[in-house]
Design goal:
Structural class: mainly beta
Strand order of the largest sheet: 4-3-2-1-5
Number of strands: 5
Strand content: 25-35%
Radius of gyration: 18 Å
Order of helices and strands: EEEEE
Distance between the termini: 51 Å
Shape: elongated
Length: 73
């Protein structure tokens, strides 16, 4: 017996409903100017595969993926 945990059903072309859109992942580089919904303006100082480190002036924070409240300027 096989289970389908974690798999999504196929979208049929005859379906009247739109398929779910895959979320886009933002890519940040060192020295990118960013804004955060809670912390304000900042500068990316370090990136790695799991997150970015941002200097907001008064504090430096590591923000992990997904970057839901972090946006490019």
């Amino acid at each position: 017996m096989t289970s389908s945990y974690g798999s999504r059903p196929k979208h049929l072309s005859s379906s009247p409903f739109a398929p779910k859109v895959e979320p886009t992942v933002e890519v940040f580089e060192v020295d990118d100017r960013v804004t955060h919904d809670l912390y304000g303006l900042g500068l990316v100082t370090k990136t790695d595969s799991h997150g970015v480190t941002v200097d907001f002036g008064s504090q430096t924070l590591r923000i992990v993926h997904p970057y839901s409240k972090l946006h490019h300027l």
